[in-house]
Amino acid sequence: MKKLVGKLIGLAFISMLAVSCGGDKQSSGDVVKSQKTFKWKLVTSWPKNFPGLGTAPENFAKLVNEMSGGRLTVKVYGAGEIVPGFEVFDAVSQGTAQMGHAASYYWKGKMPAAPIFTAIPFGFNAQETNGWLHYGGGIEMWRELYKPFGVIPFAGGNTGVQAAGWFKKEINSVADLQGLKIRIPGLGGEVMKKLGAVPVALTGGELFTSLQSGAIDATEWVGPYNDLAFGFHKVAEHYYTSGWHEPGAMLEFTVNEKAYNELPKDLQKIVEVATRAINQDMLDEYTARNNNAMETLKNKHGVVFKSFPNDVMAALKQASNEVIAEQEASDETFAKIMKSYRQFQLQVSEYHNLSEVEYYKNREQ
Amino acid sequence: MKKLVGKLIGLAFISMLAVSCGGDKQSSGDVVKSQKTFKWKLVTSWPKNFPGLGTAPENFAKLVNEMSGGRLTVKVYGAGEIVPGFEVFDAVSQGTAQMGHAASYYWKGKMPAAPIFTAIPFGFNAQETNGWLHYGGGIEMWRELYKPFGVIPFAGGNTGVQAAGWFKKEINSVADLQGLKIRIPGLGGEVMKKLGAVPVALTGGELFTSLQSGAIDATEWVGPYNDLAFGFHKVAEHYYTSGWHEPGAMLEFTVNEKAYNELPKDLQKIVEVATRAINQDMLDEYTARNNNAMETLKNKHGVVFKSFPNDVMAALKQASNEVIAEQEASDETFAKIMKSYRQFQLQVSEYHNLSEVEYYKNREQ
């Protein structure tokens, strides 16, 4: 083998010499380029290599490194390695890191409209989110929203419909939500508050012990694949999988605008297309792995997958409408973006009722 | 070991460049490369620039051209420009063109298992197709199937649930299918035949006049966006949108293996990632544009969107199961791939019933 490696290096040596020097020796179709190399940092809101959420940026870095032939190398950092998970946006805005991977609703305090680009309760599922974003004007409005911070957003993966979460006691009526301490971020948290619950903001790493100690009574996280990894079934009995608050939760890649503009056009395009590929790849992974995790939870751990009673779901929907209306009234940008979102949803849900929903029904008959 | 050799060659490549070229003019981080350029032809089964199906390969070519900085340029040809639409696979296999864009079920005569990679009646929708393909072993089996022809397949876009089609007379019972001349390719055609209809193979460009002249009584094509473009509403009164035969029709990019192997690693990766991005992009486009087309068909042209009666749908499902069982019995490869497909579908449909379907239901309440 050593010999083979030696030979190959030798061959590489010779061909490189032949190819890389003296452009006059090149055939007419060749291009000689001097290429600057770039080393980027990508900070994330997730534990390093956390399934799905954390592997997506690693996969992104790999694609970019390979497509650029090493001209742009991206190194991924887990939450807390350079900055805490909730400071990813600031780090990218200030140029501490050239890129970030997180969820837009973490920046709600800075921009009330930001959560629209993660999920709207009773809004788009994954396919609809992608349709609106790329062919319904969504991404242009997202870019405009982040522009004052010198940050460019790209879709960064989708988990599909997220589960309503893990509860220590059963939810039989809206009254059972009164005083319930539940970890739920974004607009979903506002909705829960309206129904009398107490939404709590905690990062993923804090959830298991908080639920175990009784510091919280319930938590949503993602769905079977990620929830199994955290072991919530050991500390909460009731798993409600019927989603409502994040029906197609989108993650985000963010890029420092100045760093992006310093890249040559081909590397800019490589970054953009890699985000697009990863955006699909994450959903593919969740679609495949949620099933297996569901089987494990059911068959190995005896977890029962439940739905909220109809009146609880109806109350959540009513409260969601109120929360969205309040956000629209208090923030012009939220109202403007939501107008586009709602128009698209009206149409897409009418068509999906005739196509996707009708098909799911016919398949099961 | 292969990986190690690859790494060593990579290292040799970079270090040789540093050594062999006038490094004095470069800043320390720069890389000088002499790069061979490649000019590829991409032949398709669609009219040049046909909405969705035909714009996807154009978009692909644009991404590759930009990401490669002009080192790999791809020129797209419509059906009939170099080879007819149904000869795309042969052209790629023989190297007449380096790439193709088509649908795998057109190659059913050559490989009975090929239609699985377009759609299975009552099988996966788009999201499930992508999950199985990239995280359920699907793409590996597809590669193996095309390997003897020197062709490498990649997912090439998805239309979502396809409509059942346009019919000159109403379908009120299974008896109405007797003797019906309907354009429907792939396994869907076999199913129709089993119920007494006469499936006809025609390319897209022939459909309007065939329907108009009465040469056929019905046709399926894609869905509102593409169907409106062909103007079928002018020549057939009844539009059945409830899909069953192609619930998530996947297109394909094919690459001549020898041409692919001649590319350097970075350009290979650029081709692969661009197909992945376009695979999502096409679905995004259909998701957005089917709605608008539906509104136009309804409000401007007075088209009523109909579903087949339950007993017709049940008969189609029963016949689909029989057709698939026959294919499994007569072709080992079909049976092997279908085993993986069915196992994945059992799990994913159980999970989607709890997540996507449950969500669609709750959203409408």
Quick synopsis:
Chain A has 365 residues and is an alpha/beta fold. Helices cover 48% and strands 15% of the residues of chain A. In chain A, 53% of the residues are buried.
Molecular structure report:
The structure is a homodimer of 365-residue chains. Chain A has 365 residues and is of the alpha/beta class. Chain A has two domains: 38-158 and 248-287, Bacterial extracellular solute-binding protein, family 7 (D-Maltodextrin-Binding Protein, domain 2), CATH 3.40.190.170; 165-246 and 302-355, Periplasmic binding protein-like II (D-Maltodextrin-Binding Protein, domain 2, 3-Layer(aba) Sandwich). The first copy, chain A, has helices at 2-20, 55-67, 88-94, 126-135, 138-146, 186-194, 207-213, 224-230, 257-262, 265-299, 310-330, 332-364, and strands at residues 31-35, 38-44, 72-77, 99-102, 151-158, 165-167, 181-183, 198-200, 218-219, 238-240, 250-256, 305-306. Chain A has a six-stranded mixed sheet. Chain A has a five-stranded mixed sheet with strand order 3-2-4-11-5, sandwiched between helices. In chain A, helix 6 (186-194) packs across helix 11 (310-330), helix 8 (224-230) crosses helix 10 (265-299) and helix 11 (310-330) runs antiparallel to helix 12. Chain A is globular, with a radius of gyration of 23 Å. The termini of chain A are far apart. Mean pLDDT of chain A is 91; it is low at 1-28. At the A-B interface, helix 1, strand 1, helix 2, helix 4 and helix 10 of A face helix 1, strand 1, helix 2, helix 4 and helix 10 of B. Strand 1 of chain A pairs antiparallel with strand 1 of chain B.
